[in-house]
Amino acid sequence: MTTSEAFPVHPAATSSAHSTAQPGNLVLLLSFDQKRFIIRLEPGRRTFTHLGAFVHDDLIGRTWGSSIETTSGYRALLLEPGLADLMRQLKRGTQIIYPKDAAYIVHRLSLRAGSRVIEAGTGSAGLTTALAWAVAPTGVVYTHETRPDVFKVARDNLERTGLLPFVRMYQIDIEAGFKASDVDAVFLDVREPWQYLAHVRVALRPGGFFASLVPTANQAIELLRGFDAHKFADVTVEELLLRPYKPSAERFRPDDALIAHTGFLIFARCISDEEDVMRWQKRERLRYEARIKSQVENEAEAARRAADREETGKRYPRLPLP
Predict the structure, then answer these.
(1) 254 with 243: CB under 8 angstroms?
(2) Fewer CB atoms < 10 Å away: N or C end of the chain?
(3) Phi, psi of 276 (to 5 degrees)
(4) Domain residue spans in the chain?
């Protein structure tokens, strides 16, 4: 079996092997008014837009980065779509994870070609697209979704982007566990991720990567509490704020829109059951818990002394007898 027969071809590699657009390629058409159209080239077809029709036969064989004309005479750039372009054009059955978060999640989960990763909460397959893009062509994403309508939207999106061959999709509830084991990473986009940490430990390889995204502080706090019980260390909680700038040399300044809080990103590593999880906590947490313990002990001592005063009428505790 040859390499091409053993593994499907990554969508990005389909076009990058050529300097020109070929039949079957996904292409990005960037119009002069900054509209973006992603289409798959098929001989004999036309794509109709507000600027007129793009004739596919006119695009096939054209060099990437060159301009092409619609039937109405309007021009557009012929480009290869990037991951961010693919994520933006997904059909929405649910809110997708923002590209700024998706890229960072892929980075923090240390994903690369050949990685095996579990995802729960497929949604519209926004993050699934990024995960599959990262692990292709030899890796696999095992994604789990409960709602049949959302599952269909996700499948259609992955099919449209050409990434479905790198994804195993399961329409199931993860209450009974995941459909894979000994994976490199697990990502949970569910309402109560702390409820599934036992399943995560079963599925992850020793020392594997875990991540979750939750929108509220209450959810983040509950997940942090769950880490101690299930032996997770190297914990971090972060959020990403993206500030775009106007790409103009004469008017270089922040854009009017700021993509601010979209969720809390929580990362951790699973450690051996034999390890004392408290030994591997960050110093600020250990200092805080030591301070709280000391405060509780001091309050208990103050209460004991107050009770002793009520009993003896003396301000100071009784001295021990010689």
Answers:
(1) yes
(2) C
(3) -85, 110
(4) 3-81, 85-280, 288-322
**Structural contact between residues 281 and 233, judged by C-beta atoms closer than 8 angstroms:** yes
Tokens 């077809």 belong to residue: 45
Stated as kind and residue range, the H or E segment containing 154 is: helix 148-161
Give yes or no for a contact between 169 and 143, defined as CB atoms under 8 angstroms apart: yes
Q: Which CATH class is domain 85-280?
A: alpha beta
Q: How far lies 168's CA from each of 25, 91, 114, 147, 295, in Å?
A: 23, 19, 14, 16, 52
The tens place of each residue's pLDDT in the chain, 322 residues long, gives: 333 345 677 776 654 557 999 999 999 999 999 899 999 999 999 999 999 999 999 999 999 999 999 999 999 999 999 998 998 888 887 778 888 999 999 999 999 999 999 999 999 999 999 999 999 999 999 999 999 999 999 999 999 999 999 999 999 999 999 999 999 999 999 999 999 999 999 999 999 999 999 999 999 999 999 999 999 999 999 999 999 999 999 999 999 888 888 999 999 999 988 888 877 777 777 676 778 778 887 888 888 878 877 776 666 666 667 6
The candidate with the shortest Cα–Cα distance to 137, out of 233, 267, 287, 8, is 8
- DSSP codes, 10-47: PHHHHHHTSSB--TT-EEEEEETTS-EEEEE--TT-EE
Q: Structurally, what CATH architecture does the domain formed by 3-81 represent?
A: Roll (3.10)
The neighbour count for residue 70, using CB atoms within 10 Å, is 21
Pair 235, 266: CB distance under 8 Å: yes
Chain-centre distance of CA 297, in angstroms?
Answer: 43
DSSP string, 61-79: TPBTT-EEE-TTS-EEEEE
Cα(231)–Cα(274) distance, rounded to whole angstroms? 9
Secondary structure letter of residue 275 according to DSSP: S
